Input
Amino acid sequence: LRSRQGRREISPWGRATEARVRLPAKFEQTSQSAVGVPDVGVAGLPISLSINGQLRQADVPPDMPLLWVLRDVLGLTGTKFGCGIAQCGACTVHIDGRPVRSCVLPVSAVGSAHVTTIEGVAATPAGAKAQTAWIDIDVPQCGYCQTGQVMSAAALLARNPTPTDAEIDLAMAGNICRCGTYPRIRAAIKQAARS
Amino acid sequence: VSRGRRAVDGVEVVTDRRRVLLGGGLVLAFAYATAKAHTPSPARVNPKGPEPVSNAEVAQVAGKGFTGLERAAFIRIAPPNQVTLIIPNAEVGQGIYTGEAMLIAEELAVGLDQVGLEPAPPNAALYTQPLLQFQGTGGSTSIRGAWEPLRKAGAIARLLLIQAAAQRWNVSPAECRAERAMVLHPPSGRALAYGVLAEAASRLPTPQSIPLKPPAEFQLLGKPVRRVDTPSKVKGSAVFGIDVAVPNMKVATISASPVFGGRVASVDDAAARAVPGVRQVVRLDNAVAVVGDHFWAAKQGLDAVKVTWDEGPNARLTTDDLWTSLDKASRQGRGAVAYQSGDFDRAFRDAHKRVEAVYRQPFLSHAPMEPPAAVVHVRPDGITEVWCGTQVPTRAQATAAKVMGVPIEKVIVHNQLMGGAFGRKLETDYVEQAVAVAKQCPYPVKLVWTREEDVQHDNYRPMYVDRISAGLGNDGRPVAWRHRVTAASVTARFAPQGMRPNGVDPDAVEEAEDPVYGDFPNMLVDFVQWTPPQGLVVSWWRGVGPTHTVFVIESFVDELAHALGRDPVAYRRDLLRNVPRGRAVLDRVADAAGWGRPLPRRTGRGVAVQKAFGSYIATVVEASVADAGDVTLHKVTTAVDCGMTVNPNLVAQQLEGGLIFGLGAALWQGITLDKGRVQQSNFNDYRTLRIDESPPVEVIHMPTDNPPGGIGETGTVAAAPALCNAIFAATGVRLREVPVDRALLRRGAPRRSATPAILPIALAGAAAALTGGGEDGEGGA
Output
């Protein structure tokens, strides 16, 4: 990784006024089961998955990427589709704590491993720290990539509680943000590390 | 519903006594009807300059938008004390749900923690954006248009609620005040919630006088408030268009003709139908969609469909063909004059020094993180419901109605959060497709594009050829200025009523006809409209016109400075001698960025100044260039005077992100064609900046008492010129084309300008006189 001159932390948003706002129900997914879940007419045994500490079953083809099982079958839409080829990181989940791009992971490869998604990551200490810092620093803009960003950051913080700039760049370089929130992502990870 | 209309000072005022029953509670609703903020002007050829048609100038009259007043729908209050704000602009990541909610909340005297938010439904009568003249979100217009009317909406509601409380208590309204959704009567200690006053307030006439708080009394506006949508976006509960699920819904994905303008000739869908989970294969005129139980089934099915395409006339089209055609149009086309003063030809001929250059900019894809997606339910009762993120709700509604062959009243559009847009969701092609597919299905359908479909079937930011010449006087100041823009016109396609009668696309010449430096003497700016091959559609991209014009102007002003042996900041300070806001941000950023301090070898600083969208901004990029030509971004510093500011936190976000968005484009992005097909496909070959390539961004906010300027697109405008000027300072190579060509930047590479290999500028009357200056402004590394 290249080093950069002149980098310093910037926090013009550091003293933001508190604003707790409830968004109307239509902006928030309140249920974890999709109302539109199809009855999948695919032959074969349902696949059992451990997701966020719960046992879930899905009757899907074994080569179906975990992303689509989460989104289209189990209704866990916090995990996002961005590229389908493990280039953008929007689909990042944890498999036994490791960050994985679920858009290229066949569901059959999960086996008995524990899957953690954004909906469940707050139950982990690093995930809770990352989410708190993300909210405090006001990282998101459109927000679409941010769940994947938080998952990558939580995995980083879990194995390295005080990452350097270079370690942050290395761990987060697989997550694209088109809105360009990278400076705040760095600031949020550092804040989470201090907390 | 009774309505009265009357004219006040030539402004139509509409009063609407409609009351809306919602959830059993009588609610109070307010909104503003629209009136023309400006009308497209004819071409101006006079020394006073163009009519106020550019966004920057409209900022000056923003307070005159929404000139009719109508009680309708920005605020709903229901018992017990439920306050809902209807946000007229769409949330694409710019934070408008927060910014516009703050405008209403400030005057309504409610906390942001006390309100619910709803996106405005399609309704041109209520939500036409005064600067755009349609219901839309774009051009960094939202806050400029909403600044006064949304505060007024809040103030009217507050005044009526206070009046209702005063009547109930039989006291003077002057003894009452409002605070946190309550009306208080301090002398008696009484208090009533808005929710119990709403019914009585809704029966009161609209006050004649609507005083707004002076800025000194703002409690919310101007504070760096956190965004209202952040927690749900961090926790994964926020619902974007692509996340919507309705009962019994199936999922489709689609493949349009790989060649622009091509058509489906034949489809063999036997293998696709055999894919487990595939429900239906739908053939459209120029695309094939597969519907499945989930995206994966649909995608597997689509991969299995065998389509024969009628590729049409573009089957051999290449990007080189397009450049050749554009360049020819630029040299030989008839320019429509956007601005003219004095006698350019004579002044250029007689100038002390002459400099000229040709700049090229590529097609760009928007590539928002959320690929195009829409859920459509063609209901048995004849209503079509659409759930999608759109920047243009009324256009989405009209598009769906057209496909269905029904009046717009039969289409319901539920607007959703957008996972980025950058102009992509000003287009409704994905809505049109989703409705066309759902029309053929007995169940609701969610259409989701793959990323490849998105990159290869976007409506692209136009390719531009800009020819620019300046004659300089003895003091180095321009005495003649000529700028010709050649491109396909976005306005002519998207909003033809916005074209000037003489053929000028005001978007294409924005900031070119009216540079930040003010009018130069003997100035001529014109526009040549180039017609792209059929099927190639151009569209607005973050930063719209100024992203392209400011790159040209700010690169060229740098060339002038170097041709004169002057420092780029000092030269701009001189040109800005009559532009105090421009000078103030330039001085501030130069100081903060350490302008003039020594740097290591092949490292440089570049500066750019702008006033696009009514915000004065100066930016310094510090970058280095490796011997192999790779560019490293070290630091970006930007100083911004966007006038009165709603939320500095949002301003900082937009500058940080907009700069990184624009730097990524300048360093990597360009859509190219071969055999009529786009050669890029996904984030692997349509590169965007990653965190390990992104510089720290320091935003210096310098608020003033000027009217609010737009901010969402300003960072993107600054990025490319400041970067290319930094690269010049580091290497002595002037890049007149983006994305950056590393081969030109290799140490020891043949010293040549990065101007495309096209003929020198040949403007009518000026060509013969071209002697001094020359095309390469590479004198002052």
In short: The two ends of chain A are 26 Å apart (CA to CA).
